[in-house]
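Hello Y.,

Per our agreement to keep a running log of every chain we model this quarter, I'm adding this entry. I've kept the format consistent with earlier entries: sequence first, then predicted structure.
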Amino acid sequence: MNVSPLAPAEFPVLPSIAGVRLSPLELRLRYHGRPDVLLASFDEGTTVAGAFTTSKCPSAPVDWCKSILGNGVARALVVNAGNANAFTGRHGDASTRATAAAVSSALGIAESEVFLASTGVIGEPLDVGPIVAAVPELVGGLSAADAENLKSAAHAIRTTDTFPKAEGARATLPSGAVVNVAGIAKGSGMIEPAMATMLSFVFTDAAITAEALQSMLSPSVTTSYNAITVDSDTSTSDTVLVLPPVPPATTSSPGPTRRATTSWPKPSIASTSAWRTSSSETAKGIEVRHRQRHRRRVRRRSSADRPRHCQLAAGEDGTRCI
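Predicted structure for the entry above:
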């Protein structure tokens, strides 16, 4: 596969995020030579905020995530590339439940704490058997979310993307606390407002309540993910999740991305404006600066003329892929 001429010169160096562990794995569900399934686990107390496609025919994983988002708690995330598990009816619903149940059992967490995302060909039933069978191996491969592991995770969620997409940022809150943000994303075809067709997962070491986090994410999505268009098609699988694990009370090895502290401050909504700005710019960096479609011009639309579609679109290699 030829790499898009719009690809950045190099993959960004992302900050490590405490409380996040990643396990990318090559299952060859559709792609060979790279990981195509990702398991992420999070420390107890991790909150979550999300935004999803506005398509009238969302995928089974989107329906699952929307049904549990209100709990405001996440302990795991499973992403598979190659099959979107969309337009798959009861089979799709059963696939999501089977995946959540397997991860729940392996990690000793509630099924309602397991978030799911799928991307790839639509209308094709997902054979969940290999994913469920690989859960023990995925769990055994969990390791810290450092720069190299985040890069592997970005590869694992690609479909027809010709390069992995990621961005990182750091912000200093008015309280003086330094927080880090690391985000990965995929997006290849169906670039249209109402989520800009992608999966994106943003991790941060700021301690934020689910309510405050959602209040920051929703307007940030409006001015970032929902503000670009290329081919006027809206995907069925669009998902953005922001996951801040609660940092440990003490840090024994302070480094450039974390400050040693004995009491990590929990910022209020008012004190997180710097974090919100950083997170929003991270989102824009992932989807706008790294846009790899062959059209060179990305145009912006106002909210008044953003259509809502539920259509198919061709990926870069000609497959119908979202």
